[in-house]
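Bumping with the actual sequence this time:
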Amino acid sequence: MSLDDERNSGPFGGSGETRTRLPEGEGEIRRTSRPGRTSSRSLVTVVGVVVLLIAAIAFANRGDGGSDGATGDEKKPDAAATAPSGEKPVEGKNGGIPSGYGHDEQGAQSAAANYAVALGSADMFDKDRRRGIVQTVYTPDEAAKRQPSLDEVYSGKKFLTSIGLNPDGSAPEDTKFVSRIIPVGTSVKSFSGDSATVEIWYSSLFGLAGENAKNPVSESWFTSTYELRWVDGDWKVADFKQKDGPVPVGRDQRASTADDMAKAVEQFGGFTYAR
């Protein structure tokens, strides 16, 4: 496996190269113009939102003993690829990573989502934590094969400085390093007992938060395909590949200041369990 392949293990893109995204126009915020909305359209929008909220509240407050004559099983929503299944999350953890997934399609999806979060986290830039993640996420054979090249990639001075970090992997003074993956949804492409292929669509936040950051926090979108194997009572990653997108249309929201972004990183912790 080449060094470029290992760069796809993190949130840096699917092209096999490290990508440092800087705001266009030397930090100038680009906004798209939109036609003004009439007051009648605004009123219709507000009324529609209110109606949806009322309906949602009424549905949420409806008890199991409703008068519609439906049984408890009939009231349960059908499981969907983008909806929670209602199953209890795993209880075990291995090195801080949720483990002990169900030997079924849902368990495979949960494993893929949580392993993606771990592989795309800032912990991958810490030598000891990285090794713990690799040992937990990959099959034993794959972990032994990937560990040396991952250590080389994540400790390379050229790579670290290209993304704005110090040569030792630490963040420059008065900045905070951000590397997070936010799963949006999963899809089982194939399942056959002890093996599964799962796609996960997610957004990635990556960069430095701070006034003097050379690589400001930016958002990217990717889809990763995980080949999973059932090994020693849990799902493990045997291989995966990554591609860009799907990428949603950006709204004309003003970018937050470096100070606000740094505060958000401190105030909002990342999730440890997805799906």
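The tokens above came from a reply further down the thread. Helices lie at 3-7, 39-61, 72-75, 105-119, 127-137, 140-155, 157-162, 258-267.
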